[in-house]
Amino acid sequence: MLDPKLLRQDIQFVAEQLKKRGITLDIARITSLEEQRKQCQMTVQALQNERNVHAKAVGQAKAKGDNVDVILQQVKDVGDALKNSEEKLTVIQTELQGLLEHLPNLPHPSVPEGKSEKDNQVIRSIGEPTQFAFTPKDHVDLGARLGMDFTTAAKLSGARFVVLREPLVRLQRALIQFMLDLHIKEHGYQEISVPYLVNADSLFGTGQLPNLKEDLFSVNGEQGYYLIPTAEVPVTNTVRNEIVEPSQLPLKFVCYSSCFRSEAGSYGKDTRGMIRHHQFEKVELVQIVSPDDSYAALEALTQHAETVLVRLGLPYRVVALCTADLGFSAAKTYDLEVWLPGQNQYREISSCSNTESFQARRMKARFRDPKTGKPELVHTLNGSALAVGRTMVAILENYQDELGRVHVPPALQPYMDGKTILG
Question: What is the dihedral of CA 166, 167, 170, 175, to 10 degrees?
Answer without folding.
Answer: -140
